[in-house]
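User: I'm putting together a teaching handout on how multi-component assemblies are represented. Below are the sequence lines for each component of a complex, exactly as they appear in our records. Could you produce the 3D structure of the whole assembly as structure tokens, so the students can see both representations side by side? Please keep the chain order the same as the input.
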Amino acid sequence: MCLAVPGQVESIRDDNGTRMGRVSFGGVVKDVCLAYLPEIAVGDYTIVHVGFAISKIDEASAQETLRTFAELGLLEESLAELRESDGAAEPPR
Amino acid sequence: MKHLAEYRDADTARRLAAEIGRIVTRPWAIMEVCGGQTHSIIRNGIDQLLPPEVEMIHGPGCPVCVTPLETIDRALAIARRPETILCSFGDMLRVPGSREDLFAVKAAGGDIRVVYSPLDAVKLARATPNREVVFLAIGFETTAPANAMAVKLAAREGLKNFSLLVSHVLVPPAIRAIMLSPGNRVAAFLAAGHVCSVMGTWQYPPLAREFRVPIVVTGFEPLDLLEGIRRTVVQLEAGRHELENAYPRVVNERGNEAAQQVIAEVFAPVDRAWRGIGVIPESGWRLAEAYADFDAEQRFDLAGITAVESPLCKSGEVLKGGLKPNQCPAFGKECTPRTPLGATMVSSEGACAAYYNAGRM
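Assistant: Of course. Below is the structure of the complete assembly, with chains in the same order as your input.
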């Protein structure tokens, strides 16, 4: 019930005073209530729960998280190289 | 798919797991509260990727699993009435009540409809004015905005034949109950990302301080979970206990304030019984007085229902993290997804179903 995949807003309309939209989940398009995201625009990505868009995905934060993963990988490799190259496992005291 | 595939990279997952192995120095038990995260952890084998020092304990965050037996029995009683249409999320139909489940009532002629959203139930009430449409409103903070809006829309339209059987539950009081339970081993929590997308993270720093327990908000994809676990272990090893947000693309501190406002208008806090666990103070929501007309418990006479739990089912211990599903004597024998004794074997978020479906016998 709390599992949700990100979808992309394709269109927005007013349905008797309720903000509704069509959201595409990798090609599967669903009718979604957008009342809780007054700012969301066509093209934005959102997390949808039981027919309601709850959160707009923040692109800048997504990029930052991915950068953290990339840096972690690089850091790990460079530490291993460092250990191999000077053979000193003990950190400086 | 964007915002999905990039969080499933196997190579980065192995690097994150290796990094956790590099920093961990002693055993830690970490609880993922959310059942959706339990399923992702088991399905992706994340627990098997972790160093032996890090044990994942599966929490009570499966709404179907903790919905009290009394509520299931009341839903069954409502569904048996000839004038009603009971609407429910699909997960609930196979949850065993005291004597039968909703599927059995449906097979016997009860009008039970599976809906994707509570708005579908409102639509049905609008289309069938001579029938009583009841929506079984269960869930954590994630489904509350939808259920609250359904009530608001029904009130605005003046729908007289729509009501809710409400059994909403909340994460922060459950964390408190787990930390206060005797013999608790949980040293840190992964907080449920989608609950926090609604409620924000502001409820959690006081809990982290009071119980000296790190709480890290995470998502549901393998890399999100591993990064959450990594940050948790960093805190544990450093002796820190703070709230951290490892899911910032979806969660911020304040949450969805428009949703919180509607929830506060439609619902009010209530002491709630959790199936297998017992009553936790202020751990749920009921309909507020202003919306009492939409309360199915007041609309239908549901007196005289006494719930009888299966004596073989140990789901309470599983939900509190005291027992792994495959340590239950009935697991895979008397209890399977086809013949479930408890809700944890039914739900797509239940720990027992997760273990069974992944072949963890």
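A couple of points students might notice: Confidence is low (pLDDT under 50) at residues 86-93 of chain A. The first helix of chain A runs from residue 59 to 86.
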